[in-house]
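pasting for ref
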Amino acid sequence: MHEFTELFQKLVKGIDISSRLREEDVQIGVTPKKEVYREDKVVLYRFQPPVETPYMVSGRIPILIVYALVNRPYMVDLQQGRSLVANLLKLGLDIYLIDWGYPTRGDRWLTLDDYINGYINNCVDVIRKRHNLQQINLLGICQGGTFSLCYSSLYPNKVKNLITMVTPVDFHINQGLFNVWGRCTVGSEAVDVDLMVDTLGNIPGNFLNFTFIMLKPFQLGIKKYIDFLEIIDNEEKLVNFLRMEKWIFDSPDQAGEAYRQFIKDFYQGNKLIKGEIEIGGKRVDLGNIRIPVLNIYATQDHLVPPASSLALEKYIQSQDYTVCSFPVGHIGIYVSSKVQQNLPPTIVDWLKVRLV
């Protein structure tokens, strides 16, 4: 009876807190930024540093963050105290980020060629021109890391240093739940992506979000809402929970043709490590990557298993390869307070010694 009374009191307090919360109280993407380039739905932003902190790392060579297409990139700037972007700015980095926007029916025919040889390359050229540089630094996250590997292979003269974070490389590692869903042991029969794209055009973001939840249905679909009752009377924790929910369910649709190629060539064909990927008629050879590479992975990642990321070392030709791990999951790499104490300095220290 006492436990029921305590729970009831929590619910009453939680309802009171919730009634006072407004949309602006659940802010995501807290660091000021400025649009510097726009093409179709894609926007290139430059983040504004703290007034007292000048750009000073890596010889003033800026870094471009390339995020995945699946979710919104403000996960790297989630909130005060848990923002990878803000913490890197404080340490002196000059940071740009590509926001892919929300594809509509008119974008159904966009291909990986459009994303990599088109949007990414154009954004890189904008930054190079703004800073009068031949090369910039890349930080690719998840699928954006895979894109960054492809880009660095195709345009090695435009990338100074490459950082990959929770990035899939070997897509036939059966430890990853998404790997199993996308390929399993029956190849293309695991998912009929042709039927999906031919029927739907763009792949709905809600469908992909449901797929991710079903990879861990109890933990992501039930348990977190049971645990929610434990924090419902704590306004700070409640806002944090709502902030995460806002990001999770803000899932853009996926351009159909790009999604088709990514699933078939990467997940089902595992062509990246075979050197068989073609982007705009150009073959992606990871052996072309000879620049310094920092590969960051999460040891408890259920979406990108560590073995998938660690495979990178076998296929690139870089003589300057560094690997770094953190004991968190795929999302924890962005939002863990402890990780945010250690990850930004790790990135900055790695760049500092590669100024020339």
